[in-house]
Amino acid sequence: MITILSGGTGTPKLIQGIKEIYDPSNLSIIVNTVENDYFSGVYVAADIDTVLYTLSDKINDETWYGIKEDTFITNEKLKDLGCPELLKIGDQDRATKIQKTELMKNHSLSEAVDIQRTKMGITSKILPMSDEHSKITVSTDIGKLEFHDFLIKHQTKPEVLSVDYTKVNSAPNIVETIEKSEKVIIGPSNPITSILPIVNLEGVEKALKNSHVIAISPIIGDAPVSGPAGKFMDALGHEVSSFGVASIYKSFLDTFIIDIEDENKKTKIETLINKVITTNTNMKTINDKKNLAKIVLNE
Ligand code: GDP
Known about the structure:
Layout (H helix, E strand, L loop, with lengths): L1 E5 L3 H12 L5 E5 L5 E3 L2 E3 L1 H10 L17 H8 L10 H13 L5 H11 L5 E4 L7 E5 L2 E4 H7 L6 E6 L8 H7 L2 E4 L4 H9 L4 H6 L3 E4 L2 E2 L2 E2 L4 H7 L6 H8 L5 E5 L6 H4 L5 E5 L6 H13 L1
Parallel strand pairs: 1-2, 1-9, 2-5, 9-10, 10-13, 13-14
Antiparallel strand pairs: 3-4, 6-7, 6-8, 11-12
Helix pairs in contact: 1-2, 1-13, 4-5
The structure holds guanosine-5'-diphosphate.
Guanosine-5'-diphosphate binds next to helix 1.
């Protein structure tokens, strides 16, 4: 069994490649939950839903959010009624979120996600990192902002001073799943808001140190492929580069995969990580995804 640590954009792209060449029933995917919150009356676990839709071939892989070819009738009606609808949730996607919200009246988030993934015909295990609610706050030059306000309302424009999330306990089986895995893959996700919240759960870093861990850099050159990872890394004093990512993961990482564009950083990164591989990590086509998946799975 292989475990993957995931956020909601970079790692799901890799999962699209992995599931083409590896038996999905042997995958356990531990997904970030610190960005989860209630919007317009429904519980939104965006990264979990993205992984659900990726594994059931429904993902809108232009936005990496929601279901492809979804409609937005409820979103329009809610806006007409004066509901802010900070998130533009599609109708089919909202059905998933309504069901999850209902299930969570009697079940933990982990149980609710397990029911949903089974209904969707997904054989991989999808494990929310925690069943407890966490809150991310981004401190900026215009004040403290809730994560989605920073991301959507302010379009990630304010200068970031720090990023904090409340500490939560891990969901059942997270540490055991890592301990039992033949390898752990850390996809190219935001190190600060997607991966470190998982690594910082009690017992996880120790379990990673005892496992064979392979990571892919989400930073190519001096910028992330998408999203605010660069701003967050910079605010927390990390160099915005694959070297900066390596320095965050160095205590538990065995193999680090960086982009061919960063060949000139390889020697410096080798001072931190045992094995460094350069290849194309910019996943634009299904072949890019499958090629990267092959390299990761061979490690
Ligand atoms: P979020 O939950 O939506 O923030 O998504 P993730 O944390 O999973 O992914 C965001 C990170 O994925 C960003 O730092 C991107 O740089 C990275 N990313 C997205 N697409 C790619 C890609 O094709 N290649 C690489 N190397 N990184 C990517």
